């Protein structure tokens, strides 16, 4: 089983990423269940604006698209900015919109029988809003969102320290991330054993 984690931090490599740090704990849990995990740091790529799979010369999205199609599990990891998903996360979802028009050999949308979850960091409140926005977009595209397929870290409303600067709340975020990984893996296995059919015409 293969998983893909798309880190939608605004910080290009090699800057430290709070989102990457929390994602690492979920990645470890996924690997503990036998999943192979690929990681994409979207801000490091040239992801052109648009809603097509390939926006032409220099567009790095086709490579991400290949990884999406190779993965049974997807995790979108985003910081919270102004109470919303990062602009990078929005760009990723917009590019994934092209998948709505793509089908497999059995006429199923390509996101069918794949599961997805969301991971959020931020030193402000709004994590549940970010989870809802991203999960809603992924469900529209065709992903199955298992129960409790998310984890997050923040220290309440208002500005404050970041995940990498403060140990408070880490135990809860990590244990919730382990539950998230388990739910994603087991839901993906269930869909693999009994896949969703193509939508009725």
Automatic annotation (TrEMBL):
Domain NADPH-dependent FMN reductase-like positions: 1-130
One Gene Ontology MF term: oxidoreductase activity
Gene3D superfamilies, per the entry: 3.40.50.360
Cited Pfam families: FMN_red
SUPFAM superfamilies per the UniProt record, alphabetical: Flavoproteins
Identification of the protein by name: Flavodoxin family protein
Organism of derivation: Streptomyces coelicoflavus
């Amino acid at each position: 089983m293969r998983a893909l984690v798309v880190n939608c931090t605004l910080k290009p490599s090699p800057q430290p990423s709070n989102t990457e740090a929390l994602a690492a704990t979920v990645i470890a849990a996924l690997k503990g269940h036998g999943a192979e995990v690929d990681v994409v740091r979207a801000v490091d790529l040239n992801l052109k604006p648009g809603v097509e799979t390939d926006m032409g010369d220099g567009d790095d999205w086709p490579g991400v698209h290949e990884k999406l199609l190779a993965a049974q599990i997807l995790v979108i990891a985003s910081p919270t900015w102004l109470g919303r998903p990062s602009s990078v996360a929005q760009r990723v979802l917009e590019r994934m919109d092209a998948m709505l028009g793509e089908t497999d050999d059995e006429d199923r949308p390509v996101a069918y029988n794949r599961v997805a979850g969301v991971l959020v960091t931020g030193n402000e409140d709004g994590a549940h809003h970010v989870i809802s926005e991203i999960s809603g977009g992924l469900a529209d595209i065709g992903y199955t969102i298992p129960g409790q397929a998310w984890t997050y870290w923040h220290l309440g409303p208002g500005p404050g320290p970041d995940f990498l600067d403060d140990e408070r709340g880490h135990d809860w975020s990590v244990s919730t991330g382990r539950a998230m990984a388990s739910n994603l893996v087991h839901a993906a296995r269930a869909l693999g054993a009994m896949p969703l059919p193509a939508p009725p015409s």
